[in-house]
Known about the structure:
By secondary structure, this protein is of the alpha/beta class. Helix content is 25%, strand content 29%. The chain has 6 helices and 9 strands, in the order ααββαβαβαββαβββ. It has a 7-stranded mixed β-sheet. The longest helix has 13 residues, at 100-112.
Amino acid sequence: MVNSQIKARGIQDPFTIAAMRTVPRHKFVPKNLMVDAYLDSPLPIGYGQTISQPYIVAFMTEIIKPKKDFKVLEIGTGSGYQAAVLAHIVDKVYTVEIIEALYIQSKKRLNDLNYDNIFVKNADGYHGWKEKGPFDAIVVTAAAEFVPPPLIKQLKDGGKMIIPVGKPFATQQLLLIEKKEGKIKTKNLMFVRFVPFTRAKE
């Protein structure tokens, strides 16, 4: 997987590559899909959600330029796979999942795999995790129609956020957002298709 899907497509960061080699992806997919765990595609994990394809996970990890002292916020825990990859590189990962059943599953899975630097919360990711911010980087794994303002506020000066933005069930733009001296710089990276950003009912 790492050689043919990740390194071959331009991922170069040694920490990202090492993390992708280390995390057992088959433990983050439903049992009936374990045989497909290392294919170059997203897979369903239930509740209308997916585990992203390996290349996208690696790309989103590399692009935030993670360092070992980083505190990272992830929105959309899902199976816990992206959080696990980040946890092998950075100091702490705070991850928010709105779907209670997925929150329970991912929290247990990450605990069972001894990830003691990942903290999982069941909440609406639109609001981020203010009490634990600001964050060196923010990784959003669901497509929002616009960038949530609370996430911008919780990003450290000099920090980076990666987020898919666009209409649900359509092609979206993967955006890299950088905050520097109070100013926001946005860059379009590629077209992607992510599941919609789920919000709590008002």
